[in-house]
Amino acid sequence: MSKRYFTIGMAGHIDHGKTSLTRALTNVDTDRLKEEKERQISIELGFAPLYEDEELQISVVDVPGHERFIRQMIAGVAGIDLVVLVVAADEGVMPQTREHLDILGFLGIRSGIIAITKIDRVEEEFIELVKDDILSELEGSVFENAPFMMVDSLSKKGIHELKELIIETLKEQEMRDAKGAFRLPIDQVFTVKGQGTVVRGTVYEGTVEEGQLLKVLPSGVEVRARQLQVHHQPAKSAYAGQRAAINLSGVSKDDLERGEVLVSSEHFIVTNTIDVAIRVVEDLEHLVKQRTPIKCHIGTAEVMGRIVFFDRNELKEDNGEILCQLRLDEKIVTKRGDRFIVRRPSPQETIGGGWVIDPRGNKYRFGQQTIQELEKKKAGTPIERINAALYEAKSLSVEELIKRTALDEGSILTNLNDEQFVKISNKEYALVSVVEVIEEDIKDRLEDYHQENSMRTGKNKAELLQSLQKTFSKTLLEFIIDNGINNGLFSRKEQYISLASFVPHVPKNWVKRTENMLNELKEDGLKVAYLNDYLKNAGIPDSIAVELKRFLEDQGKIVLLDDQYAWYGAHFADAVERLRKHTGDEFEVPQAKEAVELSRKYMIPFLERLDSLGYTRRVENKRVWRK
């Protein structure tokens, strides 16, 4: 997929002009709620399309700046690729701006631009003072070396230049993983009259397609993506980095809530105990004691819990990176590497943030031994790093593994001999567990297909692979199918794949009528009526007639002469044998009529069918038997 998708965020203090700047860049007012317009502050996340061409699509999220709406701010920035830090020229950096900077750093945001807004309100000399003040405040933050842009949203000064800088910056940036399993943390749930339940969020990774079966975690509710929209425009697919609204069938609005995650795979882990690496803010106001109640913000989830230390009983200041554990009151969906923020619920304060070392945390003893074990987990053994890379990408070559794991080729090849890995081609490897999950998925798809299409040989291989290739490589899928055939799970006939145990058959409720139709056709010998008349006489509806005719011919029960006539299979074979016996190597129509005792009405379709089946070859007015 050549096109790349990004979401950028507008962050900063309340009333510094984030929403106005978003409107100037996109021509979209992101204040949707009545109370937002009345109070002139953003309460909920506001989204707008910024730019699109053949290679790039960029969306904007306007993050709330008011302290009371910090949780929406965290949910907003958790899914973005670049942040525009908005600072008003007439006020400079405010206390809340510093908190936003901490949060951005903890969430791993590395790409940023500083937009000094409202420049028409101050003298030019003052802007330079504001700029110097901002530089000193940003020292040591993720924005320390970020470029500056001077803008005014009302007069549109600098707006075009800012937009161009955003575009150029993202052109040099890698997009999120669109090949992995689909994951979308839900940040809005609502209903649309006549459509039903709709969820909205930023696609963290992977791809989702219209009609795809999905699962809501942690609840485990199965749903189907009935319709997709990207910025209010209907779409067949949504990719990592895009803002998407998904109309779900199989679930009501009351069954969903913000913070849950929409996924396409069983690979994602549901947990309430996570081992983490955390850093705290420099100016922490209150002591953090062992098992202090905390509020964890991860993705769009906001979950209460407690922080558990293994090498200290309290925390008051920045002590570098601390390895500890979060024990949460509710289940969340996460994986290694996910970023989070920890806040004190009362008095409200950002404590710090970090990343998930292991989503499957256990209970450990207090002491340095546990810290040492967590250090090993954090660094990751070679085999763990290979495992994590293949878990993420599903299949990789040795060259790709070298890039993703920072291991040398020798170490990778040595560890790939472990039984949890499988070589799927001369170059690619995969996890056995991933192969087993995909194999089970294909098995389920074939079972559903056989149930709905019991008279068909199997599912067209290209059609079977088409939807899966959005997530998994063709090499991996081909390996799984071939492996399944070799192990007796799947069967292949020409281009059709089926379960090895499946035998095509007429649906039970049509078996008797089909037998009656065949008996009537058999009784009429070679001088048959129209095939559709036999079907109607037997009470077989048009809705299954085409499928039934194809099935009966595949099974040799009938042979279609043309689109009107068909013979009972055994009668056709007898007619071919009689014709062979009473003709030489070649013959003409009169000889054939005499041999089989048929009128021209049946003889011409019969002979043409012999040609199409390869029994004979027509040469002018004669037919020649093929050897």
TrEMBL record:
Keyword S-adenosyl-L-methionine: no
MF annotations from Gene Ontology: GTP binding; GTPase activity; RNA binding; translation elongation factor activity
NCBIfam families per UniProt: selB (TIGR00475), small_GTP (TIGR00231)
Keywords: Cytoplasm, Elongation factor, GTP-binding, Nucleotide-binding, Protein biosynthesis
Main subcellular localisation: cytoplasm
Organism: Mesobacillus boroniphilus
Subcellular location: Cytoplasm
GO biological process, one term: selenocysteine incorporation
GO CC annotations on file: cytoplasm
Function per UniProt: Translation factor necessary for the incorporation of selenocysteine into proteins. It probably replaces EF-Tu for the insertion of selenocysteine directed by the UGA codon. SelB binds GTP and GDP.
Domain (Tr-type G) ranges: 3-174
Name this polypeptide is given: Selenocysteine-specific elongation factor
Top-level taxon: Bacteria
One Pfam assignment: GTP_EFTU_D2
Gene: selB
